[in-house]
Amino acid sequence: MIPNFETKEDYNISPFTGWTRTKWEELAEKMIVGLQPFVTPGKGGLALPNPVRWMDAFLPEPEKMQSFYWLEGYTRTRVLLASWMAGTGKQTIISGGKTINILDQFIEGLLSASDPSHEEFIGDRYGNNQWIAETSAVALAIYLAKDLIWPKLSVKQQQQIVSWLITATGKQIPNNNWYTFVANLHYALKALGEKYDKKELDFCMNKIEGFYLGDGWFMDGDASRGFSVEQYNAWGFHYFLPAYVYMGEEDQTRKTWIIECLRNFVVNYERFLGANGSIAMWGRSWAYRPALTVPFIWAEILGVSPIPSGETRRLVSGQMNYYLNHDYFYDNMTPTMGYTGENLQLIDPYSQYGSPYWGSGVFLNLLLKPDHPFWTEKEKPLPVERESYCFADRTIGVLVAGNHESGEVQLINHRLWHQKEGPGTKYAKKYTNFAYSTDFGIDLKRTENGYNCDNMLSVSPDGVKFSQRIIPHFIKIDEGYAASYHYPLAGFPFIADDNSKTFSADKKIEIPEDNSVKVTTQTLIKFFLQIRVHTLETERELEVVREGGFALNYSDNPPQQLLNEMSVGFWKNGRGSFVKGLWGFDGVGKNGENKGDNNSNTLNGFSITPVVTKGQIEPGKHIFVSLVGTWFGPESILYDKLNVVKSTIVENGRVVVNFSDDTVYVFTV
After folding, report:
1. Bridge partners for 127 per DSSP
2. What is the pTM for the complete model shown?
3. What is the dihedral of CA 636, 642, 645, 647, to 10 degrees?
4. If we measure between CA atoms, which residue out of 627, 597, 440, 613 comes closest to residue 526?
5. Whole-angstrom Cα distance, residue 263 to residue 78?
6. Does residue 406 sit in the same domain as residue 453?
7. Residues 376 and 425 reside in one and the same domain
8. Does 85 reside within a domain?
9. Looking at the DSSP assignment, which residues form a beta bridge with residue 139?
């Protein structure tokens, strides 16, 4: 559903989006009104209709644990409420013909949630530690609106809340971004003038600093979790770290470090955003989507942004505008469980109906006063709207390619991965595809025979079960070039049950390693196209090798199929995906085209992928070369792209590619 706004767009001040502060305020109020039918009697929960109940299998007494399903909707909307109240000075809304005092509602819920004798108490009774993370979100919200909330509480009530916040500290937590939650609790307690545990705070900060890779990037845990770098940098680390500065971090060295990390991150991360408002999304927790822009907002709040304020507003408003135009809301104005509308195949096992409200952090922008440059400067274009680029992010081992002509941004991955594939996680697709795009989704369809092969090379010993990269071993990255190797048969469990109840993101499937097949992949970016060179070394016979391009999503009639020699493309509504076999492949085809299984694509709808194949692979060394790309506009554009490679020669351990502009690139194989 697209909300019906009363606020009119202003394309003078916001030539790209039309969005203004008034529109942001109206959106916040529509969301707050949307919450009211679900507010629980004690105001300490949000009884949202829940399409998934992952925790039923883990709660000790599921029938008595309905408050667990109230948890995230309540806690994650507190930042929305606090930012709106503190930023606009408003406290009441009209809902169902009644005037509701949101400040009073906030306080009543806070007292219920923090009272161990209340049925809506949030604490250590659920059989898991999720409440620790959620309590931290409430602590931040309390601080944001402390001047409104704290004076209305008696000393006894204040101490009840303080005691509640303290109980969420000193616990065993996952070894990842969760340290930011506990650190935040201590910072909030300190900022409220209450006792806190400096020793635990310093311990958490030391752990966080240990995850730091440089250039603003954090790994989400240590090496035991893989090279897990993803959007948790935006809606985890850089969601809370700047808040510590906002709450009055006194250690100048630590404060300087946090700000420098933030500045580096927003400069790098901005290049991942497409002109359409989307991002080259990879990793987990996609439902949090608007929270991607929180670091950019914090940089404005703290006055340290290296990006012009008008450009930041264009980025933040453009992202939200994209989501609103892609079914961000159900009809009741609560966020959908997905990325572009509801998509439960995309949702991770730990997510519930209230999870998307983590995106409420985007309303921190309301803390910026109406006369702040963020609101008064004219919108400025994003990097991809200014020029094309291919940026080698050496810290995390990816290429980020932006196409000024189309506005599309692609992420080419040669290092990112997150543990091994497990029930319900689908990490092999969310983390380790060769490429991700702002305009094309991922095909998450999985059966007992493996995944569809969009943006991956998959191999099959029997022609039935297909395996692909789960762990990329990084080799090198340079401007326009990156390389890695992997063992496609090592660690793939062939799990078909998409509805498997696995709550813990740390759960693994341990299976024997199989290193009998090794694939070394080199990627070159040329004309915003990918030339991929695969060196496959196998000790066993393989029935089939196949490689796919980008998955094209559609909702009604299948896309048009376009064939040309050793190439295949699919085109629909002015958007197309293709792959061409330049060496080693002997056939073309398609993968996906789900029959009866909608929403396998992360952008929703059915999914179809162009594929090149090779059958009957004997033991030994084999070279495969492909050309992979996308295009926008008429189908005729495809044929220009197919001809950018004039010839491919494989000889003497080299792959020589001659391009239409008379340049040559030589790969060593």
Report:
1. none
2. 0.96
3. -120
4. 627
5. 27
6. yes
7. no
8. yes
9. none
Are residues 55 and 140 located together in one domain of the fold? yes
Three-state DSSP state, 656: strand
Both tokens of 245, joined, read 């500065």
Q: Give pLDDT, residue 4.
A: 94
Helix (H, G, I), strand (E, B) or coil at 657: strand
Q: Stretch 541-569: mean pLDDT, rounded?
A: 94
On the CB side of 376, CA atoms within 13 Å amount to 6
Instruction: Select from 18, 73, 52, 598 the least CA-distant residue to 333.
Output: 73
* Nearest residue to 246 (alpha-carbon basis) of 125, 131, 368, 135: 368
Q: How far is Cα 496 from Cα 445, in angstroms, rounded to an integer?
A: 9
- What is the arithmetic mean of pLDDT over 217-224? 90
Average pLDDT, the chain: 93
Distance CA 605, CA 354 (A): 23
* pLDDT confidence of residue 399: 98
Q: How far apart are CA 466 and CA 464, in angstroms?
A: 6
Q: Cα separation of 655 and 623, whole Å?
A: 9
**pLDDT at residue 63 greater than cutoff 70:** no
Q: What average pLDDT does the segment 371-380 reach?
A: 98
Element housing 72 (H / E): helix 66-76
- Under the banding of pLDDT at 50, 70 and 90, the label for residue 495 is low
Indicate if 337 and 456 belong to the same structural domain: no
DSSP 3-state assignment of 578? strand
| Amino acid in the structure at residue 164 | W
Give the whole-number percent of the chain exceeding pLDDT 90.
83
Q: Are residues 187 and 236 in the same domain?
A: yes
Q: Could you give the count of Cα atoms lying within 13 Å of 331 in the half-sphere of its Cβ?
A: 0
Using the predicted structure, report yes or no on whether residue 523 has a pLDDT greater than 80: yes
589 in Cβ contact with 428 (< 8 Å)? no
Element of type H or E holding 122: none
| Cα-Cα end-to-end distance for the chain | 51
Which residues fall within 8 angstroms of residue 557, CB to CB, at 6 or more apart? Answer: none
List the beta strands (DSSP E) in 284-397: 389-393
In a domain, 90, yes or no: yes
Query: Could you read off the pLDDT of 228-283 as tens digits, one per residue?
Result: 999 999 999 999 999 999 999 999 999 999 999 999 999 999 999 999 999 999 99
Quick: pLDDT tens for 65-88: 778 889 999 999 999 999 999 999
Burial degree of 429 (CB within 10 A; 0-12, 13-18, 19+): buried
Q: Please tell me the predicted confidence (pLDDT) of residue 1.
A: 86
Say yes or no to pLDDT of 214 above 70: yes
Nearest to 598 by CA among 566, 555, 557: 555
Secondary structure element (H or E) that encloses residue 28, with its range: helix 21-35
**Containing domain of residue 333, as a range?**
21-386
Q: 351, 386, 421 — which closes off a domain?
A: 386
* Separation CA 110–CA 202 (nearest Å): 28
Chain centroid to Cα 490, Å, comes to 26
One domain for residues 476 and 554: yes
Q: Examine the fold and report which residue of 386, 411, 435 is the final residue of a domain before the chain moves on.
A: 386
* Whole-number pLDDT of residue 446: 84
- pLDDT per residue as tens digits for the range 294-307: 999 999 999 999 99
Contact 80, 363 (CB under 8 A): yes
For 170-196, give the DSSP string: S----SSTHHHHHHHHHHHHHHTT---
Q: Are residues 112 and 236 in the same domain?
A: yes
553 and 429 within one domain? yes
Categorize the per-residue pLDDT at 426 as very low, low, confident or very high, splitting at 50, 70 and 90. Answer: confident
Q: What is the pLDDT of residue 503?
A: 38
Joined tokens for residue 490: 């090592």
